[in-house]
Every structure is written in structure tokens, then in C-alpha cells.
Amino acid sequence: MARQAVRLSRLSCRQRHETRFSMEMDTLLYSQSIDICPNHSYVEDNKFDIRSDLMHKKPTQSDMEYTQTSPIVPKANIIVPPASPNDIIRERLLERLDESVSRKLTLISAPAGYGKSTLVRTWIHTRGKKAVWISLDTGERSASLFWRTVAAALLAEYPAMRETMDLRMSPGDSGIDSLLSAVLELVSKLSDSCVLVMDDYHRVSNPLVHNSMSAFLEHVPSSLRVILISRNIPPFPLSRLRVSRQLSQLNTEELRFTMEEAEELQRMMLMNPLTAEELALLEEKTEGWAAGLLLAFMSFQDRQDVGGYIQAFSGSHRYIFDYLADEVLGRLDEQLLHFLLLTSIADRFTAELANAITANQDAHALLDRLEKSHLFLIPLDDSRVWYRYHHLFVDALRSRLQVKKDAGTIREYQRRASRWFDQNQAYDEAIRHALQAGDYDWAAERIERHLSMLVKNGHELELMVWLTQIPLAHMVPRSDLFYYQAGTLALTGRVQEADSLLNDALVVLGEQQRVLSDEASRELTMRMGMYRASIAFYRGDIEAFVELLDRNREGLRLFPSIVKVVNLGEALLYRGPIGFGGRLNKMAALSAKVAESEGRREAIHHALQGHGLVFLADLYYERNALDNVKPLLEMALSAQATPSGLGVWVPAIILLSKLLEASGDRKGAGDCLHDAMKELDQLQTPHWRMLLEARLVRLKLMQSKTNEGEDWAARYPMLTHESASVDREYVHVTLARIWLMQGKTDIAIRKLRQVEKAAFRADRLGSRIEIGLLLASAYDRQGKKSSSTEALDQVLRLAEPEGYVRLFLDEGQAVRRLLLDRMATGLESSIRQYVRKLLDAFEAEIGMRSAENRTDMSTEVDKLTPRELDILKCMANGCTNSEIATILFLSPGTVKRYSHHIYQKLNVKNRVQAITKARELQWI
């Protein structure tokens, strides 16, 4: 059976389609569907050349292409900004940086306009430092994209290492562990010292990025030092670095311009320098704020009453800047001001983009003028192709643009920018500008066309933001987009939001019907039937769900994507929205409904493909009907492992390994997982591989092999730092299991409590049962009997109505002992009957495994009977003969006789030797 899964996966497509399904295999699920088969081929480039034709160079295709590590990473974002002859050499701060890089992290934090980036750029160029620079932008919402950007920047500086790296990660944040490990592996191979600079780190808002940065800093080798430039203190723990003297900080107070530095700046800017008194007053008014000083000097040109002008400054930096910006902008000629205002709509731009926005061809000359006038224009690469404005300056420009131009005109500028970015394959920026232009149909069409590429490159969170900006009337006709949004909400546990979205869509569809042709109206009616079926499914209304499907067979045939299931990352299929959160009764009710009609079976197979097979196999497994599981898994695994089918294939493999273990074949269970991981290695899907690794770790932990669990956790340092979430539940619970085996009970309980809260919010009943059992065992180990009993009682109340069995059996003898203890106390009749059923299942399993002479049992001694094994377990837990008698409903004399038999079979003389021998044999 272990090898059969892989053989089955190699069946031909024709063989798979010719396979017949039995009535018991029929079930229907719904989730989102995306047909990710775009005809767009995204261009990749691994050249990081620096060109010298400077100002008048047009952006080539290579300037717009992205790196081979596969994220959307503009090259301008991963190149050290070029040196400028206008930079002030602030030697006192350069020396501070010389000292700081002996530590892991240098944090430079101050408000905008204090010269943070300029300081680090100047230090790199004047000191000749080897550096990797990352300019973070508003798109850095995904942790996957964040670390892909880091990898791209490192490989840009060290291209020779590209062959050793393979960073084609799975979509989104799900592959963050493998990606972080890959980046750490990359930096561990650096042959020389290097500085990694992350500019504008305050733009990062994703907690997963902060958690992963904390893990990265903890494990970063001495060959790499990190400089973070931010407007605020990053929200990850710095105390450990500070205590270990691995943190250096520069703040606002240190970055303020001294009088000497202000004098040097004015010598560069002014033909007629200020008096000492005027300069002192200016320094006092601006408090050494670099942006304020620079704007002030620019506004002094050709002004007579400089002293009175300086006296007029008042208020905070924000007001000073606005005041000075107005003064400076008011003195520009109309052509240059028009250029500044229009180009301010873009976060970054080239001369060609500027020409497209302004509908002129003079951008090169105007950019030349702006550079020479020191007007807050920042080049982003050595070849002077890409530029941006200082953040404060661009805010001032955009504010003035709102005053100068009407909303319709501004939307036209945004539309021009979106078309230019689209023509140059920068699709994320094209979509952002289209949305700002209110061009919703065009934006929706581009998102739909490039959906797979955007997901692959880590833009899931931004996609959800974009989709909320598009009115439903523009999105509902594009079912892939609508179901990406609704399905993502559901798959992350936000079922009520998905329900609300679907209801709103029905209203929109009803309104659209009034103005449509008969044919279009009929099509919409069928879609509405499918939408209503979706709503019924999410509500768990099986009767309405099946009835709507029966009434809309033609709609199901025409629009199968509406009910096709897509599992994007769930290891245990039945616990997510696909399996009603682990509500076995609903799974069974739906399966029974499906089996009532031949036509219904055909329709459902058309929509479900392999998900229904795993769905039903899970149901049989959890209710301990193991003989019914294997045929279903054979059918599910008959399909080859492909990236689009792993949502079925991986959960089926995990369930197969559980089935083999439950049947007493632990070796086969391990072989099954190893074979599957070899298959996945060819597909480069680290998230799915990680789930199989986690399952293998659980298998090893049941054999008391904690070292393999420790090694696995060490490969994924991110796990310890990140917050719990349902989409990472399986690996988080696996980590908690490792900690429990290591005796780290307190931190394991904290992790389990976090995951439990996430499971409760997502309404994952099956997850709450597993976590509750682990908590009951953990509290028992700590001697907290009342907490253990409370946790166990909650589990029993949740599990009894659904008929769970295997979840208890798979936890082994620790849970069995808890159930025995609980039977000795007061229980309500229905729960007592349920516990008796579970204990009978344990007895049957122990007898079966003893009869099969399992490979992990010793053959050197006679096998213990189930009752003798119970007594031995109680001995190991420190129970006296009287306590054992009470727990097992025996007399003390009977316990004594059993103990004598145990000593004889183990060839030992006393209780201590018996416990030691049993542990050596891994019986307890």
C-alpha cells in the first residue's frame, strides 16, 4: 500500500477518467475556484547590469523585467541608490555607522526628512562597503514577497550563487518557512562581509513579516549585518538583541543637523550666506530637520527680507514643510510645476512614464532641471532611469494637485499611468493606478488575466484589498475574481463575510437581469442558482444545498467553476470549510443525500473530482471504519501529483499514512510519506512538502524519536516566532507536540491556546477536539488535574455528538489513561456511554496489534496482555497498588498478582526494573 500511492499517481489521464465511482464515494463540497491557466508568459531576467548613458537613456525591456527568483521585484528596488555630489559628508554619523556594523542590527529611526537614507547611502559609497539595498514599497504586504525580494537583492549582488538556490516557492505566505530557510542558507554561504539595508521598513504592516524578521535576526550569520531604516520602531522584540549587545540605534536627536553641518549645507545652496544669527535662528526653528533646512535654503533665493521670513516659521515640522513647499512651488515656472504635479501620482517613474502621463515629450530635459535644482528628486538606480520624489515632497505635490485639478482630470492621469505600466509588464502598478482612476472594468480584466501570476508572486493580501475596491457590479460577471475573494474569505475561516458577500452578489445579479437580453438573463438565472447553492453550503444547510443543485443541473454543467473545490493549503481536508469544519454528521448527511440519485451523483462528480473521495475517506477514518478508507484513497491517488491537484493529493497521502499507522504498519506509513516527498521535490512546492514533513514528524514522535522533530523545527525558525493561524494550524500543532515530547510543557500550552483561539474563530470543530486532547494531556503532565479534566470534558462534549473515534485512538495510551481516570468519576450518562465506546475501541486496537506482532514490539519476551499493559502504565505514572486497583476496578490482591506476572515476563525483580525495561522496549 505504501508504494501503491505513487504507482497510482502515474495512471494515464484516460485511465483516470474511465474509473467508475461507487455510490459511497459520492459527496459534494463547495469552495472557491480559479482556472489558473493564463496565456501570459511572464518574462524573467537575471542580468543586473549598470548602464552609463544616464539622463537620456530610455527604459529598455530589461529595465522592466523582473528577477529570476520569481517575485515582482523592480530592479530599482534592489540597487544601492547612487552617490550624489550634493550629499553632505556627516563624519560624526559615518563613524557611528562604522562602529554599529559590528552588531547584528543597526536601527535608524526618525520621522521623514531627517536624512536617514542619505546617511546610509553616503556611508556605503564613501567607505566602499559591500551592500545589498532593498527599497520597500507599499506592495510589501506579503511575507512571501518580502523574502523573495530579499533573495532577489542578495542574488543581484552575488549572481554566482544563483545555481545553488531554488526559490520558486509556493503561493503566498504559506511558503514562508522554506523561503526564510533558503535565504538563511544563502547568507550563510557569503564569502565576504556584507551589509543588508532595508529602507522604509515602516511601510511593512504584515505581522508575519515582523515575526520572520525576528527569526532571521536570531539566526543571521556574522558575515551579514542588517541596517533597518524606518520612521518608527519596528514591532518585533528588540530586547534580546539589546541585552546581547547586538543592537545599535540612531534616532532623531542624533540625526539633527548641527550648526557646522547646516553651515556646510548653506554654502552648497546659497550664493549669499546667512548671518550667524540668522542661521542660528533657522536651526532653532527647524530643530536641525534636514528637509526643513533644505527647503528653507531653496526658498531664500532672490528674497530680500530673509530675517523676517525666518521669523514667520512656526508650528510643527509638518506645517513648516507645507509652508516652505508652497513657497518653493509657487516660485517655479508653470511648465516645471505642471510636470511635478502630474508625475506625483506615481510612486516611481521614468522619463517615458512621465511623458505618457503629461502627454508631452520633454521629460528628460525637465528631470535634468529638477536634479540640478536639488528639488527632492531621488534617483533609484545608477543609470538614472527610475526616480521618485521625497516622501514628504510628494505628499505636498499630491495635496496641491487635488486643488489645481478636478477629479476627472486626475483620473485621466492615473489611467495613462496604468496603461503605461501595463504595456511594460508592471501589472501590479498598472492595476493600482487603474483602481485610483476608477477604471474598474479594466482593472478587473487585468486582475483576472494575471491572477495566477499575481498569486504566485505573493500578492494575495493586496489582491484582497484590490477586490474590495471594485464594486460588485464590475466583479460578479468575472466569476474567477468573485470566487477568489469569497473562497479566500471562507478558507481563512471568515465564513460569515463570505456569506454576506454572496448575498450582496445576488442582489447585484438581480438588478442586472432587468436590462439584459433573454439569453443573458437566463444565464444569470443559472448563475444565481449556483450562488444560492454556495450560500446554502456555507450555512451548512444540506437540504437547501442539494435541492438547489438538483434544480440547476444545466447551470452546474455550464459553470462548474462555481462549485469546483479548491484546497489551497489544508493538510486535513475535513477540518476546513470543505468539510464543514469537521462536523462529521453534516458530512454523512451530504454523502447520503448525494447517493439518492444517479443524476445527482454524475453532477457532483463533474464538480468535485477527487475532493469528495478524500472527504468521505476522512469521514470513515474518523469513525474508525478503516476497511472503507483504502478504496477511496486509491481512487483519489489515481491522479498524478500536479501543482493544481495537490489540494487533493497531499491530504490523501497524509490520510493514507494515518491509515497504515492505525493498521500497525508504521514502516509503511513512513515509506508512503518519503515516496510522496520525492514526488513533490520535482514540483517545487515547499508548503505541501512541509505538511508531509510535519506528518512524518508526528509519526516519529509516536515512536519517541524526538531528535527528528527537533531537527525539523530547527529548519523552520519562523515557526517559533509567528502567530497562530488556521492556515498554519497543522505545523503549529506539530511544533507543540515536539515541545511536549521535550518536556517544554509551558510553551507548548501557550502555543496550543493560541491555535485553539484561531480554530474557535474559524469554527473548526475537529481542530478544537485535537487541541483539547493535547491540552488535557499537557495539564495532566503538570499535575493540574482540574485543568486536565476540564479540557477533557470539553473535548468529550464536542466529540460525542459527531461520533469521533480515531482522534482519540491516534493519541495513544496517554489519552486512554485519561479516559480511564475520568470513568472513575461522575459523568452524565451519554458521555459515560461514549467514553465506554472509546475505551472498547482502545481494547480492540491493543488486541489487534498484539495479535499482529507489530514490528515495534520486542520479540525477546512474552507479550503482555492489555490488562497487564494497563497496570504497567499506571506503575510508570507512580500509582500505588491501591490506586491502580481503584482506577482499573480491581482488588489490590489482583493487582499484586498481575504485577508478579509482569515481572516474570520481563525477567525483572521489581517495579523500577519493569518500568525501565518497558521504556527500553517503547511499550510506554
UniProtKB/TrEMBL annotation:
Pfam families according to UniProt: GerE, TPR_MalT, WHD_MalT
Classification via CDD domains: LuxR_C_like
Ranges annotated as spanning the membrane: none
All residue ranges annotated as the HTH luxR-type domain in the record: 857-922
Keywords (A to Z) from UniProt: DNA-binding, Transcription, Transcription regulation
Gene Ontology molecular functions: DNA binding
Gene3D superfamilies: P-loop containing nucleotide triphosphate hydrolases, Tetratricopeptide repeat domain, Winged helix-like DNA-binding domain superfamily/Winged helix DNA-binding domain
Gene Ontology biological-process entries: regulation of DNA-templated transcription
Domain of life: Bacteria
Protein name, as recorded: HTH luxR-type domain-containing protein
Organism: Paenibacillus paeoniae
